[in-house]
Automatic annotation (TrEMBL):
Protein name (record): PQQ-binding-like beta-propeller repeat protein
InterPro entries assigned: Kelch-typ_b-propeller (IPR015915), PQQ_b-propeller_rpt (IPR018391), PQQ_rpt_dom (IPR002372), Quinoprotein_ADH-like_sf (IPR011047), TAT_signal (IPR006311), WD40/YVTN_repeat-like_dom_sf (IPR015943)
SMART domains recorded: PQQ
A UniProt-annotated Pfam family: PQQ_2
Span of domain Pyrrolo-quinoline quinone repeat: 482-596
Signal is among the record's keywords: yes
Keyword Signal: yes
Lineage: Bacteria, Bacillati, Actinomycetota, Actinomycetes, Kitasatosporales
Signal peptide: 1-35
Superkingdom as given in the UniProt entry: Bacteria
Keywords for the protein's UniProt record, in alphabetical order: Signal
Length: 672
């Protein structure tokens, strides 16, 4: 984001050709590691309260008449118990490690609930917990740790043995076993050395089924959907993947229903698949394409297999091998993280923070908001941010919080997935929505809730940076393809609704992590999440003709994290705190600096009041427009971001970002 998001299109057009700087033609300047001494400035920081408050969730499972739900991006991680007969939260336990609970599984008699957590970094702490449901007033206890860091799915065999799968960046996922008798966690092996993540596991008395693929860090030599059978007696793996599933990037879900193994995939260029396999003869199976790109959260009533995904709630009829939508009057269920069958109905755990009880015969439903039912409503970590003079919007998981600057009120808007980045133009909000949701929009004058503005290729699933090209009237978004590798530039015309997606505009491996614009030219900052191949390439791109104009390889060891334009200079930060300034007239880097002390990882940049501001996980700082000296504006800002920090401006010269879990407004008035 390089322009004030609330400025009208004519204002933005005038700003695009702002003054050139005398220092532009100077030889390359290199600065040392720490910031320059601060210039005179008046800086006011106003706390606007928690950025987003809700009970965010990432898993759900029915045990008896109670739905157990795991939190997402909350501190501490926790489990709650939602009692269906009373529709109240009747118990809770805090786990204390990691940021989210994606994996839940219960043993056969419903006594123990196992939970696996996701973490940002491996601190050597437990990631597997057990809650004794017969004594829910007692806290869950840590029972072990898998060295794959993240536990994405759990299964409990009939004899009580627990199996876990997940992953850690840069390493193929293993199958793990927890023996409740000995208390030991064992690594059973890596069946697919080219997989990047495992999200599916199921177990019988004799066999454990392991499902993996390339959900993250795809492309190159990463494998596609793979299914392995682990013989519990022999300790060996056998590849049993149906060939029809191998075209999809990843296996998504596994479940054992009677004498059948049910398998679903996550698709990208093709629809997700649902396979039903005979446990006695795994070569005997059927495969059916679904309506969406994801099929997950499996449950059954014996005649039908129910599942959810981006296309909504569906039922597969076993006898006819047909799939049909499940109608319900609850409306949009959002991202479904729990689905179970009970007494002729379905219990649905929605990422919107509610439980829906659906009567499958009539389609009628009862929806209970978990916060109102007693779930702890606390601040969550955040993503994109955008502002104008009236509202500030903060993106989170399945929610966009709208802060009314005048009334001081906060309204949680529903938006599926995650608003990774956002802009406000003429009072209207535009977002890039992960995963595979495209661009969304919300006009507070006419819309009750956000809605999709435009879809983009589903394999280009992760929009990362959004800005407005005032010259051409285009919204520009840089994106990443998690499953295929590389990335894209999206364009959307606010004048006529036309859109385009330019796949791999940098090269076959670099995603477009940052995009900014000047005088109708888009500047794309490349990054490469893999260990091999180029990174840190800057491409000047014509977003109307869809062609490259020129490129340079930047002097950075890691990829680009953020870009901004002021005058004839392009400012950028690498993912390890390398500042660079490019003179766009001569197409050359004219300044570099090592800002690792201020900017140890991901970062964001914005232009405000003639200065370029940057924010990292730790610090808000500014770059002098003539000398390129860097000054700390707010030290120790330590924003609670989930996928990298953000900063934006309201067009009145005020900055918005996070300090901890709180939204803050920063009015900074430096002296040139």
């Amino acid at each position: 984001m390089s322009h004030s998001p609330s400025m009208g299109r004519r204002q933005l057009l005038r700003a695009g050709g702002a003054l050139g700087l005398a220092a532009a033609a100077a030889p390359l300047l290199t600065a040392t590691a720490h910031a320059a001494a601060p210039s005179e400035a008046r800086t006011t920081v106003t706390d606007l309260g928690p950025a987003i408050e809700q009970f965010a969730l990432m898993s759900g499972i029915l045990v008896g008449d109670t739905v157990y739900i795991g939190s997402r991006n909350l501190t501490p991680t926790r489990l709650i118990a939602f009692h269906l007969p009373t529709r109240e939260v009747v118990a809770r336990t805090d786990l204390g490690t990691g940021h989210s609970v994606q994996a839940l599984a219960a043993d056969a008699d419903g006594r123990y609930l196992y939970a696996g957590v996701l973490t940002k970094a491996d601190e050597g702490l437990p990631n597997l917990f057990r809650w004794d449901l017969r004594s829910p007033d007692r806290p869950a206890v840590a029972v072990g740790r898998t060295e794959d860091r993240d536990i994405r799915e759990l299964a409990v065999a009939p004899d009580g043995t627990v199996y876990a799968v997940g992953g850690v960046p840069g390493k193929a996922p293993a199958l793990w076993r927890y023996d409740p008798g000995t208390g030991l966690v064992a690594r059973l092996g890596v069946p697919d050395p080219n997989a990047t993540l495992a999200r599916a596991v199921a177990a019988t008395d004799t066999t454990v089924f392991f499902g993996a693929g390339s959900t993250l860090a795809g492309g190159g030599g990463a494998s596609r959907a793979s299914l392995y059978a682990y013989d519990r007696a022999k300790g060996t793996f056998t590849d049993v993947t149906p060939p029809e599933l191998r075209r999809d990037p990843s296996l998504r879900e596994l479940a054992v229903f009677g004498d059948r193994l049910v398998v679903t995939t996550a698709g990208s260029t093709e629809p997700a698949k649902l396979a039903v396999m005979d446990l006695a003869d795994l070569s005997s199976y059927t495969v059916t394409a679904t309506a969406g790109k994801t099929a997950k959260t499996l449950t059954t009533d014996g005649e039908r297999i129910y599942f959810a995904g981006d296309a909504g709630l569906h039922a597969y009829t076993i006898a006819t091998r047909s799939i049909a939508p499940v109608w319900n009057d609850a409306g949009d269920l959002g991202e479904v993280w729990g689905l179970d069958h009970l007494d002729g109905g379905l219990a649905v755990v929605s990422g919107y923070g509610f439980v829906a009880e659906i009567d499958t015969a009539t389609g009628t439903s009862v929806v209970t908001d978990l916060g109102r039912a007693g779930a702890p409503v606390t601040p969550q970590t955040c993503m994109g941010i955008a502002a104008d003079g009236r509202y500030v919007y903060v993106g989170g998981n399945n929610v966009i919080a709208r802060h009314d600057l005048g009334a001081g009120e906060v309204l949680n808007l529903r938006a599926p997935g995650e608003a990774k980045d956002a802009e406000v133009l003429d009072g209207v909000l535009y977002t890039g929505q992960y995963s595979s949701q495209g661009m969304w929009t919300y006009d507070p004058a006419t819309d009750a809730q956000p809605h999709r503005l435009a879809p983009f290729p589903s394999e280009q699933n992760r929009p990362l940076d959004l800005c407005f090209d005032a010259v051409n009237g285009l919204l520009l978004a840089g994106a990443q393809s998690d499953t295929e590798g590389g990335g894209s530039l999206w364009t959307y015309s606010l004048q006529n609704g036309s859109k385009a997606a330019y796949i791999n505009p940098i090269d076959g491996v670099q995603l477009v992590r940052a995009v900014t614009t000047r005088e109708g030219v888009a500047y794309l900052g490349g990054d490469n999440p893999t260990a091999q191949g180029p990174r840190g390439t800057l491409v000047a791109f014509d977003p109307v003709a869809g062609r490259e104009l020129w490129r340079i390889d930047l002097p950075v060891a890691t990829g680009v994290a953020a870009l901004a334009v002021h005058g004839c200079h392009l400012y950028g930060l690498s993912r390890r705190g390398g500042l660079f300034v490019v003179d766009l007239r001569i197409r050359r880097v004219v300044h570099t600096a090592d800002l690792r002390a201020l900017c140890p990882g991901f970062a964001a940049m914005v232009t405000c009041r003639g200065w370029v501001y940057g924010v990292s996980d730790t610090t808000l700082f500014r770059v002098h427009p003539r000398t390129f000296a860097v000054t700390t504006v707010v030290a120790g800002i330590d924003g609670a971001w989930y996928s990298g920090p953000h900063v934006n401006t309201d067009g009145l010269g005020r900055l918005y970002t996070l300090r901890g879990h709180h939204l803050v407004r920063v009015d900074d008035r430096p002296v040139l």
